[in-house]
């Protein structure tokens, strides 16, 4: 794989990450709106103030997000370990090795092209 193709692949990945980030912002905004509606509804029924209910909702969602992050990290570590056991390398490792091979090829060409001393 050449450097241009690798850069183009990274650019596509960056664009996908940006799109996912924008989608997440939209979901968070929607979720905040729904949380306000839920807080209002629960406050009317439960004898608590809307601020108390909203604080409880915020605390619960923070805990859930923390749990989701930890689960994601564990899943990533598990997947990474499984890939290691299969003998597969990461994209970063592949790119590093590709660069090292290109550097070695360049050095070899320089040695081959150098005039030889006549004995």
Protein traits:
87% helix, rod-shaped
Number of domains: 1
Give the number of DSSP strands: 0
Computed over alpha carbons, the radius of gyration is: 27 Å
Q: What is the element string, with H for helices and E for strands?
A: HHH
Determine the N-to-C terminus distance. Answer: 42 Å
Q: Please state roughly what percent of the residues sit in beta strands, choosing from under 5%, 5-15%, 15-25%, 25-35%, 35-45% or over 45%.
A: under 5%
Q: How confident overall, as mean pLDDT?
A: 76
Roughly what percent helix? over 70%
Question: Helix/strand-derived class?
Answer: mainly alpha
How large is the count of helical segments? 3
Topology:
Elements: H1 3-46, H2 50-85, H3 91-113
Helix pairs in contact: 1-2
Explain what this protein looks like in three dimensions.
This protein has 119 residues and is mainly α. It has one domain. It has helices at residues 3-46, 50-85, 91-113. α1 packs antiparallel against α2 (50-85). The protein is rod-shaped, with a radius of gyration of 27 Å.
At a glance:
With 119 residues, the protein is mainly α. Helices cover 87% and strands 0% of the residues. The protein has three helices and no strands.
